[in-house]
Every structure is written in structure tokens, then in C-alpha cells.
Amino acid sequence: MKNILLTLTVLLAVMGAGAGLLPVPVTPAQAADSASLPVVAPVISCNALGNVDLAPAVGAPVHGQKVTVLQTPKGKFCKVTGQIALAISFEVDLPMEHWTQRFLQGGCGGLCGMTRVGVSNAGACAPALNGEFVMAGDDMGHTGSMMGLAQGAFGRDPQKRIDFAYRANHITTLAAKALTAAFYGRAPKYSYFVGRSDGGREALMEAQRFPDDFDGISAGAPAALFTVQNSFYHAWNVRGNQRADGTSILLQGRVGVLHDAVIRHCDTLSGVKDGILEDPRTCHFDPAWVRCPAGQSDISHCLTAEETQAAVRLYTGATDASGHPYIIGGPLPGSELQWALPATAHGESMSNGIAASAIAYVIPAQVDEKAADLGRFRFDDASFARMSELATLYNAENTNLRAFHKRGGRLILWHGLADQSISPLNTIAYYQGVQREMGVEQTDQFMRFYLLPGVGHCGNGEGFPQVDFLSPLMAWTETGLTPAAIRTERTAQGREPMGQPPGSNGKPPAGGQIHVAPMPSQPYARPNATAIASRPVYPYPYIARYAGAGDVNDARNYRPVKSPVSLPMTFTSHATPLIGPDNQKQYGVRDGRLVVEGAK
Length: 600
Prior knowledge:
Elements: H1 2-15, H2 28-33, H3 46-49, H4 55-58, E1 62-72, E2 75-84, E3 88-95, E4 102-106, H5 126-129, E5 133-138, H6 158-184, E6 190-196, H7 198-209, E7 216-220, H8 226-239, H9 255-265, H10 305-316, H11 350-362, H12 381-387, H13 391-394, H14 402-406, E8 410-416, H15 424-438, H16 440-446, E9 447-452, E10 455-456, E11 459-461, E12 466-467, H17 470-479, E13 486-491, E14 531-537, E15 542-546, E16 558-562, E17 587-590, E18 593-596
Parallel strand pairs: 4-5, 4-6, 6-7, 7-8, 8-9
Antiparallel strand pairs: 1-2, 2-3, 3-5, 10-11, 12-13, 13-14, 15-16, 17-18
């Protein structure tokens, strides 16, 4: 049966090869079934694994190494924890009963600061659900909450900056592979990295800086343009919506007026009037269209002139005094319900916390605690230069992925089109940059890019946020089945790690807040929730259009068409030159300062 299923799946892929697309999505079950591998048993005890010296493998001292047997509904795991110098806490969980020769490391969001093992966007992947992976995670070299002003204080230590930027995940990978080889007597046959948000940046960083670490990588909503995104983008979300006295203009309770007008005005392009924009880049909407007439007292269905001007600024994004943009792009039409806005004029938004911490402690070369007051931030060239001093440390915008491609790596890149925290235009610009650097044909050999209509940051939103990217990534990596259509789903209540909070009835969390559901560390995936509707997504620049017959909530009744915006976009901003080939450097610490390795 497995061979028949694989043959059918490959045949479908060949049939769709003319357009590089499948008319019907390959199900996760098919993808996972086609990549089954035999079980390998441990060759030493869990206790013996605690005596393995990891220092030679990672090239640094390892402290506090401990082992415990973890009892789970998916069987027993040998859990190994420890700390790699300087202060990288890690956890590796190794199946004691049914390891199928795979290793998976999960990225960490925000500014991290916690050690957790887990995997996202894998809720229909049988090996991940069954706990068949060796799984690893780390805290990126420091401890604390994922977000908040104090969390960025690790930036006072230059080595911790390096560990957060790129070293921690790589070192943890080396430790996990060494433990795997010792426990089972062999290395993993396939290794995967899955991350989103900053975890998406971390995923791209692995492909760019350490191409030998992983065979397959899934990077979702990546904060790849870290130095600009966490400074200019989020600071503008705050300052562009403020009066001179610091009070906020456009509030959570008012963006529904804007969103409803966008949906009325713009073609969904899917052939279905469902309020979801398949490609919001085609929507040319002017907030002035919903401005209240002068003298009108009832503003429940329109925006004041002041609110209208604030909306224009938020759509546009950070600019200098002459209007030249500093960022790749602001939030897209259709994302309004997700915007990071305060509930009251004197309240704070998610963007305030992100920008204040990053600008004060993490992004600039010199820590400046007073910079946490965003009222001091200036949208000018001097500020941009200061925020870009360490772009070669933090950003994951290297478009030269030849080393990753040469060793057979596979990369799935994805982004929600209603993302309020990181503009999907950033990821489009990066993808186009890879195509320019490596050529479209070569890029297609190892990289697929998907945009999810109506989906917010890493999930939630009015679209179809439940999706399994790990199954198609595994099938591509292990059997050569190139991903085409991928099934996305809507559930009665979001259950994604960054999905809707309980009782939200499918609506985005107010004010653009990223709701982090309780997610205990566990070495297996959570199963998907029951779907109430589905829709395919296709490799960029294709979008889904209803075939004209059948249930509009069934992915099988959609076909791929090229987006009207199918030609490469042109991005003109101060941030655009930060995307390009070979634009990263290796850093070290000398006399308590960050230095570029090899520099005098």
C-alpha cells in the first residue's frame, strides 16, 4: 500500500509538472507515509548517555549535564539537559523505543530566553505525532521571558549577543547529533529545523551560516531583517499613531471600520466572497474613503480625519521627513484586525515592548537604556545607521544559499499575508533576492515559498492558519517529492501555539497581541484540531481560485492561477540594500567588545 501511495503521489506531481503545481493538495498522511524509515534501538543505556563528553563535539565546555527518563504518552525518552559555555541551556530528548533515524530542532520566538522542546506546524505528520524524532531546543544563550523590556538586557554581554544571533542553535545541533550518535550507534539519517517568527530567522540563519547542519528547514514569518524590523517597523507602529502629547489615535475598537471597508472594496481573487484577500498587494485602498464627513457626530461607521491620517501612516510604514521609506513595507490591506494597537489612548501595544527592548539593549552596538523611551527615537539616517551597525551579526538576509543547495538541503519558506508583526513584504523581498542571486531555476530546485491569505503572525486570523509544513518538507527531503499544493485549514477555535485565545470564536487577538497558548515542552507534535474548512496554498506567485463547482470550504475545489502581481516587485527603501549575497560576518569578543573575527 505504501508503494502504491508513493507511486500515485509522484504521478500526480509529474502530471502537474508543467506548471510546477498539483491541482489537488497531497495530504500530510500521504507525504508522511511515503517517507517511512525503520526503527533503530539504543545501543547504550540512558544513564550511560549522561557520561558522554560533549565538549569535543561542540568546541566549548559543557556544565551541569544531566539525564532523566521522560515518561510520555508516546513512550519513553532519554532527556539530556545541560549548559554550554557561555550560558546556552539545552535539552535533547531521545526516543528509547521507536526512533526512526530523524532529528528535529525547533526554533524559539521573540527574544527567546527559555529552553523548550517542541515542533510547530506538524499536527498531521505521523512521525512527529508518534514521537519518532530526536528533538532538541535551547534558550538562545540567556534566560527570561520571550518578550518585555528586561528580556533584552542580555545585550549587555557581547558573547550572549553572538549566541542569540546565530551560535546557540548551531552549538545545540552539534550536541544533539553527538548524543544521537552515542545513544543509537549512528548519526541521524535526516535532520530538520522548524521555526517561525524569530525562530524563522533562526531557521534561515542555519541555512545561510551552517548549511551542513540540516537537510530540511521550514522558516515561517521570519524576523530575518531583525535590525530594522524590531526598531524602525515597531517603533513606527507606536509613534506613527501618536499625538504630540504621546496619546494614541487609532485604537483597537476602531480598526473594524477600516477592515470592513477594505473587504468591501477589494477583490478576494479566489472567486469566493469570503472576506479573505488571496493577494492583498492588488488591493489599492485609500483610508480617506472611510473618513467621516465634516461635522458628522456619529462616527461609528467612519474614521475621523485624525484616525484616517494615522491609518495612512501605519499602512505606509516608517519614513524620513521627505517620505522616503526606511522599511520594506508596512502591514498589508486585510490585516487591520490584527494591528498592534492599544485599547485606550494611554495604553501600550505589543510593538512598544518589542521596539523598546530591542532599541535599548539588543540592536545597537552600544546599550542605551534611555532609548527604551520611544519618544526619543528619531526616524532619520543617523538612527538607521546606528540600528544597522550589527546587521551583519543579527540579520538572516544572505541570499547566497549555494552551499545549502549543493549539499542537498531543502527549504520551505512561508508567511501569513495578514501578519501584523512582520510584514510579508520582507519575505517576498528576500525570496526575490535569492532568485536574483541564484536564478529562478536553481532556486526552484531547493526552495518553495508559500503565502497564507488572511493569516496573522505565525497563525490566527480570519484565514486558514492550521497547516502542516513538516510532512511536505520530509517528503521532499527524503523521497524527492517537490511540494506543490499544501492544504491549509480553519478550525472552530484556533489551537496553534500562536493561535486565538480561548473564547475568541476564531477572531484575531485584540490589538495585534501574539497569544501564546500554554505549550509544555514535549518531544512530539500536538495533533491538529478538527477542520471546518480547507483551502490550498500554492508556491509563490500562484494563488487559489474556486473551480466553480463543489463546496467552497473544500480545498479540492480550488485550482492554481497566477497572481496579478506575478512579476518581481521593486522595493526601494533604506533597508533594501541589507538583502543580498554574502552579507554576514563571524563575530568574537575581544576586551569585552564585539569584534569581527579576522579583523585587526
